[in-house]
Amino acid sequence: xxxxxxxxxxxxxxxxxxxxxxxxxxxxxxxxxxxxxxxxxxxxxxxxxxxxxxxxxxxxxxxxxxxxxxxxxxxxxxxxxxxxxxxxxxxxxxxxxxxxxxxxxxxxxxxxxxxxxxxxxxxxxxxxxxxxxxxxxxxxxxxxxxxxxxxxxxxxxxxxxxxxxxxxxxxxxxxxxxxxxxxxxxxxxxxxxxxxxxxxxxxxxxxxxxxxxxxxxxxxxxxxxxxxxxxxxxxxxxxxxxxxxxxxxxxxxxxx
Amino acid sequence: xxxxxxxxxxxxxxxxxxxxxxxxxxxxxxxxxxxxxxxxxxxxxxxxxxxxxxxxxxxxxxxxxxxxxxxxxxxxxxxxxxxxxxxxxxxxxxxxxxxxxxxxxxxxxxxxxxxxxxxxxxxxxxxxxxxxxxxxxxxxxxxxxxxxxxxxxxxxxxxxxxxxxxxxxxxxxxxxxxxxxxxxxxxxxxxxxxxxxxxxxxxxxxxxxxxxxxxxxxxxxxxxxxxxxxxxxxxxxxxxxxxxxxxxxxxxxxxxxxxxxxxxxxxxxxxxxxxxxxxxxxxxxxxxxxxxxxxxxxxxxxxxxxxxxxxxxxxxxxxxxxxxxxxxxxxxxxxxxxxxxxxxxxxxxxxxxxxxxxxxxxxxxxxxxxxxxxxxxxxxxxxxxxxxxxxxxxxxxxxxxxxxxxxxxxxxxxxxxxxxxxxxxxxxxxxxxxxxxxxxxxxxxxxxxxxxxxxxxxxxxxxxxxxxxxxxxxxxxxxxxxxxxxxxxxxxxxxxxxxxxxxxxxxxxxxxxxxxxxxxxxxxxxxxxxxxxxxxxxxxxxxxxxxxxxxxxxxxxxxxxxxxxxxxxxxxxxxxxxxxxxxxxxxxxxxxxxxxxxxxxxxxxxxxxxxxxxxxxxxxxxxxxxxxxxxxxxxxx
Amino acid sequence: xxxxxxxxxxxxxxxxxxxxxxxxxxxxxxxxxxxxxxxxxxxxxxxxxxxxxxxxxxxxxxxxxxxxxxxxxxxxxxxxxxxxxxxxxxxxxxxxxxxxxxxxxxxxxxxxxxxxxxxxxxxxxxxxxxxxxxxxxxxxxxxxxxxxxxxxxxxxxxxxxxxxxxxxxxxxxxxxxxxxxxxxxxxxxxxxxxxxxxxxxxxxxxxxxxxxxxxxxx
Lengths: 256, 637, 218
Ligand SMILES: Cc1cc2nc3c(=O)[nH]c(=O)nc-3n(C[C@H](O)[C@H](O)[C@H](O)COP(=O)(O)OP(=O)(O)OC[C@H]3O[C@@H](n4cnc5c(N)ncnc54)[C@H](O)[C@@H]3O)c2cc1C
Ligand code: HEM
Ligand code: HEM
Ligand code: SF4
Ligand code: F3S
Ligand code: FES
Hints:
The complex is a heterotrimer.
Chain A: E1 3-9, E2 18-24, H1 33-46, E3 69-70, E4 73-74, E5 95-100, E6 109-111, E7 114-115, H2 118-127, H3 147-157, H4 164-168, H5 175-187, H6 195-208, H7 219-223, H8 231-246
Chain B: H1 15-22, H2 28-31, E1 35-39, H3 43-55, E2 58-62, E3 80-81, H4 93-103, H5 110-129, E4 155-156, H6 162-180, E5 183-186, E6 189-197, E7 200-208, E8 214-218, E9 221-224, H7 245-252, E10 257-258, E11 263-269, E12 292-296, E13 313-314, H8 316-320, H9 330-342, E14 354-357, H10 359-365, H11 367-385, E15 394-403, E16 406-407, E17 420-422, H12 440-462, H13 473-492, E18 496-497, H14 498-513, H15 519-539, E19 540-541, H16 551-575, E20 604-609, E21 618-623
Parallel strand pairs in B: 1-2, 1-9, 2-5, 9-17, 18-19
Antiparallel strand pairs in B: 3-4, 6-7, 7-8, 10-16, 10-20, 11-15, 12-13, 12-14, 14-15, 20-21
Helix pairs in contact in B: 3-6, 3-12, 4-5, 5-12, 10-11, 14-15, 14-16, 15-16
Chain C: H1 2-9, H2 11-36, H3 43-55, H4 57-88, H5 103-106, H6 108-128, H7 140-148, H8 151-179, H9 184-214
The structure holds flavin-adenine dinucleotide, protoporphyrin IX containing FE (2 copies), iron/sulfur cluster (SF4), FE3-S4 cluster and FE2/S2 (inorganic) cluster.
């Protein structure tokens, strides 16, 4: 099939950037979206033009590296998948496709479709963990966990850190990402001792990174490749509120 | 090249403890003064860096992805083994050790593997405490499944994404250390050289993948945790960025490369759809529990699978291996798929594929049972192929998946260069000729959490290390070599793209150094690889500049190393005149066409020493002593 | 105290302020509507009710100040959050079609301020009387009829109340999230409750100008 692509091109962080149009012939319906871009890039290279830079690695929907916005939807319109899992059979001959990078102040553009998502890492560094010194863990099966609780926790633990939630939130909010981690760890018995501290620290870090606030648009949930529920945002709101007033302030270590 | 495995003396079960009891320790006050470089943030690198940071070392970590959480360990689906014996089915440390040795076709080191089995239980404890949601029984206690043909259920799993969950555990521990200031994390940084000063590994050279800047980093020890090299085949189940570059450059600086020809080709992957194909996706091995593998009996049968009557189908695994049937080990299943396709009976557009049919299982168990067992795998298959496996048989074909070979290490995980340690898939140590399912995750975490913190300490406490900083000539020389190479790649400005050359190399390797190998084929392959490499260095086209984010340049550097590695793999495969594990030499097979080991001459590790640009590499051997295990021949008939 | 300041200066805290004040405002609108509906019971009943309210001046002013305070806090928080959200995406998408974003959610920053302007006008119209051509202090029934018999003014009320219904449709659902009330036991009824109350208030209030216009109330 034939396609027309409008692709955002930007040579480096400070470049103004703009759209460039490419016509593609003979796109196979079995290709993945990224393979379609690979083919375009091969063509650009042979024509001495610079290939389109885009992030990708595993190409099976689990590493969270790939991600941009296709026709206004982060990761494209196929539900519950990343771009690397999106195939061209979902497009039709003659389609015009607009391809833009994730846009958010907390995700500065590095080049073309490549953005810097290190703000996510900094949020995890602030508190997205359970403190457990290597070797000091008790017997694994010592604490039973009901399968319901466990499955609930896994639903949140599946987040791949792709950033699509931010990209598709009209407010540029990272609530789903942060809520997912707070919920994953906060649901498990192992996560309880640091639950308050974690909520405080992670929300604090999120605020520092210039993400927007949540006004409950729910489009994060709709584009999330792991279909993480916004109930994670509710859990974060609750944990943060409780923590703020319970006074789990780390410096003092005791309730005020 | 001296190959001293430094295995502690004493009975197998006491070796590791004896080492721990006897090694020298680094005093807590001194740890801070030691800078340790960790390259890689997968299970091996992430866990090592986090643990070393906790101990108080000054750790510098590097990975090529934009975040440490994306290392390819994230993609492992199946699970991780441990000898917990929660199932009361007779498992033990010894049995896990034995199965791993046997699965590796007796080409791995007893002491290392025993230690791996020993610490496996600690890994599960550690991971659960980190909040890794392993599957549980209704009673709330940990569940296990049987995996990869093991007779006991010892595999722990978290849905179909065990690797992701384990990696996120290591990543969170690492992140905590970053915040604590003990770990300095450098993402989008690719290691391009190892710096050796006075015979010891003392630093690395990296390229900042955003600015293109080439940087030098000095340290007291370097840990390579850079994963496997399946991408030498171009199409594999590995991530696009997986590479051999870090290991290869270390090899060129003197680290011995062990058993490069030992690779694993996984039988159940989605076949290639067209020339544009960029990677292959693994489908869990568990599918073979209920799916039946077949091809048409007739060559070139073009009918749709459901139109082919029962008596015109060849369920070849059931036919050849009546007792194991569709559950034969990975290498056997893969090789047989290749054989039927070579006979012209392959299916799919390019005739490289076989059917994995669930029709019988659906008849027998009902569609709902199949859906609960494999629902998400079926969905994934449909997402990729657009075909519904409930109606039409799946198409599968083997794909390169794991590399058992890697940099040689001793019992301390130290390579032949003092101060250079190698962990995880990047080393060669634990899986011999074939890796058992669910044991790579175990190895990565064992190396990182439980082995290296102690063995690295021993090195630092005993080596007399001068202070070395990046002003030394060794660093500046190495930096200019890296810069030269970049300039060279950019200046060729030929006609062929990096991908097209890589693809050609991959096809060649899969044909001649893949599921089956022969002396003649390998000889020819080596000639072709050399010619192709020549073509690469004279006709490749790498657009753009060095001082920017340049993905073509990154690929070019990696592919250049794959060419060198490919040649070495073929040499190694040619040298190993036996069939064992994933290494099948056509000349060495039983009358029934099964792998024929040569325990007279090849109970050893082949370790290759780099001798310079135009000099052939030299092979050395480390003989393997089987003190505790008796060698037997595998049979699945 | 410090905790409260810290909490409410976070975006999460600001959202809770909006929710708390939103609930109070919702409570008022709900009660106000029930009171207004007495118009169907005739002039006497309605005027008597209004008298009752006017009788206790200290209480009236207490309620007024709470409402004013709530509106103020609600607006300030809304504006701060809105500014932060705008700053979070300095460069807009050329094509942006975020899925599942509904109309009500998207227009909160339109419906809210319009309601605010409506309230000002409304007070000038029916409480102070300066905007009402035929205002009689104390005769609430008459005043309402006077306003609503003008189709333009009636139309204004109808539009404002439609927007209010939209605002509440999103707001009442949203506040469960904001408070972190997502328990399975009542998760299913969050949407239902929001629809019920927003439709109730919208329909109840809109019925009044409609009834006047059509002559059902005269
Ligand atoms: C699809 C798939 C499924 C699998 N399933 C299972 C399973 O079920 N059970 C099991 O036990 N095993 C499984 N395996 C194998 C297992 O996942 C891997 O062997 C293991 O995770 C490797 O871990 P690692 O830490 O050694 O390397 P990796 O996780 O690959 O990490 C390599 C790291 O090195 C970095 N790196 C590489 N090169 C450079 C460079 N030049 N410069 C800087 N950084 C560099 C990367 O950025 C990355 O951080 C599977 C493998 C695949 C591909
Ligand atoms: C059609 C619907 C409405 C009718 C008929 C109506 C009627 C009235 C009347 C008659 C008064 C004056 C009461 C008095 O002075 O004793 C009044 C006051 C008021 N109304 Fe309404 N109203 C309506 C809708 C609304 C709405 C939607 C809001 C808010 C969003 C609102 C907010 C107020 C406020 C704040 C006052 C002033 C109360 C005070 O004296 O302090 N009204 N309304
Ligand atoms: C100038 C006036 C107003 C503005 C600018 C305004 C704006 C907003 C905004 C932006 C929200 C956030 C929506 C969200 O987070 O999902 C909101 C929520 C809300 N508003 Fe208003 N609003 C105004 C007046 C009112 C009035 C008069 C009422 C009540 C009758 C009201 C009731 C609510 C409620 C109940 C919420 C839900 C709070 C939450 O999200 O948790 N608002 N408002
Ligand atoms: S919550 Fe979903 S969309 Fe957001 S980062 Fe995680 S996986 Fe991606
Ligand atoms: S889309 Fe944005 S507004 Fe909230 S519900 Fe999701 S973060
Ligand atoms: S490339 Fe890994 S999720 Fe898409």
